[in-house]
Automatic annotation (TrEMBL):
This is Xanthine dehydrogenase accessory factor. It comes from Nakamurella endophytica. Residues 359-402 are annotated as: Disordered. The gene is xdhC. InterPro entries: MoCofactor_Util/Proc, XdhC_CoxI, XdhC_Rossmann_dom. Residues 382-394 have a biased composition (Low complexity). Residues 204-350 form the XdhC Rossmann domain.
Amino acid sequence: MPVREVLPDLLRWWRAGETVGVAMVVAVAGSAPREPGAVLVAGPDGSAVGSVSGGCVEGAAHGLADEVRAGAAPRVERFGISDSDAFAVGLTCGGVLDVLGWRLSPAGFPDFEVFAGSVAAGEPVALATVVAGDRAVVGRQLVVWPDRRSGSLGSARRDDAVADDARGLLAAGRTATVTYGPQGQRRGVGLSVFVASFAPPPRMLVFGAIDHAAALARVGRFLGYRVTVCDARPLFATSRRLPDADEVVVDWPHRYLQGQVAAGAVDGRTVVCVLTHEPRFDVPVLAVALAQDVAFVGAMGSRRTHLDRLQRLREAGVSEDRLARLSSPIGLDLGARTPEETAVSIAAEIVARRWNGTGLPLTHRDGPVHHPGTPDGADRPQGSGQTRSSSTTGMVREVLRS
């Protein structure tokens, strides 16, 4: 089961000064019953808490965790039909699990209570654990928040590289294994780090069920957002027209957004894209959006539409400080024409805002490609290492490299 669900037991043992063993799924293949990040804990009294397979390999995973708890070196073991002992511990569903056994104790993880508190409070935090490399660093961990980090993977260079990539995965709400050179070199091999993100995917709220919304939903999901498209017109707001949206809502935009704010479903990672360019829809929803602490608020429309919209928003009581946060016309100047090109333009501006990018061609800039835009230089949304995740994380990274 997820780390979050066994935290009370882990915290109780940690506070008592006990040492426990943790078996954590770090990779899956085939139809495995648990996702990466699932854990089974071997308590100090020999008890078992959690699950990594729903029953198939629980005994073997508990044995691994208990061995490490008792002093064995942290290590990864593979369970599944490819093993010679598949009959004894194989997965009946035909999948394969890579499970890391590591040790949790107050001495080895002094900031565990702080980490657990962040998880319990729903604050974004990532746990990076070395799963392959020099035996001296396997099992070492680095806790990464958006604005700080704790622990070490053995060298400052490793810590810097992993913290950058962990923040990118955390911003996208993704969990993945990233590989580096032994000292954290980019594009290297020899060091594998499993990054477990404890944050839901960020939200992209798109208002206006037009062709551009369908294209933007596709790009938004590709970048790791949970995309909602909202429109007051049921004729247009349909899943058939918007197949890549995670949800399609028929409601007045401002009313829906107010409800989401009241429910606590809007946070500092949320992006709001208003594509209606019709005053009766976009002015009320923009007035609500600009009053929130969100990552991005943009609106589609011509220069003339933008000026008219600003005047209407002023008449609605929106202050100049809030109006300054509005990106309109939305998107970077790519010369876009089609809905798909426009979606790329919008997504490019969102990425640039997230990491303080300039939006300029790299050939026109001097200095490092990845300029320091956030604490500790966390200026890469998806990481620069090589991920083994089957999600779109790797695809996005390769697109950004090309």
